[in-house]
Amino acid sequence: MTEPSHRQGYRIGEVASAAGVHVETVRYYEREGLIVQPKKPHLGSRRYPEETIARIRFIKHAQKLGFTLKEARELLLLQTNKTQACGAVLHQAKIKQSAVLAKIKALRRLEIVLARLIQDCQQEYPNQHHACPILECLEADDASMDDLLADAGER
C-alpha cells in the first residue's frame, strides 16, 4: 500500500480497510490510546502513517492469540525493545497459555455434564412420566450444581 497517493498518509477508512477492521475500531483505539490520532489539518482530513496500520494489525493478532486489549497494550510497550523484551513476552505468553488450558479443562467438564444430561433426558423422555432431567438440573440448588460439575472434573 505504498502508492504515490499515500506519501502523505492514509485516510481513516483506508487505515481500517488495510488493517481489516471497521472505522469505529480505529476511533476506539484512538480513544483508548492504542494508536495516535493525527492532527487534523486546516484543510482536508487526517492522514495516518503506515505505522498505524502495522500497530492495529499487531493488536488484532494479539487478540487472535487470546490477549485482551490491556495485554496487547503491554505487548506494544515491550515491542519497542524486542531483544530485551523477549523474556517478558515469554512470561505473558505462558500466563495466557495457562489461562487457555484452564478454560479448556472447564469446557471439557461442561461437555461431560451436558452429555450426561442429554443421555438422561433421552432415556427419560420416551416415558413422559418423569420431569426433564435438564430442567431439574437447572432448578437445583447451587451445591448440587457445584457437585455435578466437580464430579465431571474427576473423570
Describe the structure.
Helix content is 68%, strand content 0%. The protein has 155 residues and is mostly helical. The model has no long low-confidence stretch (mean pLDDT 89). The chain starts with 11 loop residues before the first helix and ends with a helix. The radius of gyration is 25 Å and the shape is elongated.
Q: What can be said about this structure in brief?
A:
With 155 residues, this protein is an all-alpha fold. It has helices at 12-19, 23-31, 50-64, 69-79, 82-124, 133-139, 142-154.
SSE layout and pairing:
Elements: H1 12-19, H2 23-31, H3 50-64, H4 69-79, H5 82-124, H6 133-139, H7 142-154
Helix pairs in contact: 1-3, 3-4, 4-5, 5-7
Question: What descriptive keywords fit this protein?
Answer:
155 residues; elongated; 0% strand; mainly alpha
How many H/I helical runs? 7
Give the overall pLDDT as a whole number. Answer: 89
User: How does the major sheet shape up?
Assistant: none
Helix content: 55-70%
What letter string, H or E per element, gives the SSE order?
A: HHHHHHH
Proportion of β residues? under 5%
The count of strands amounts to 0
> Unreliable stretches, pLDDT < 50, 5 or more residues?
none
Rounded to an integer in angstroms, the radius of gyration calculated over CA atoms is 25 Å
Q: Structural class, judged by helices and strands?
A: mainly alpha
Tell me the overall shape.
Answer: elongated
User: What's the N-to-C terminus distance?
Assistant: 54 Å
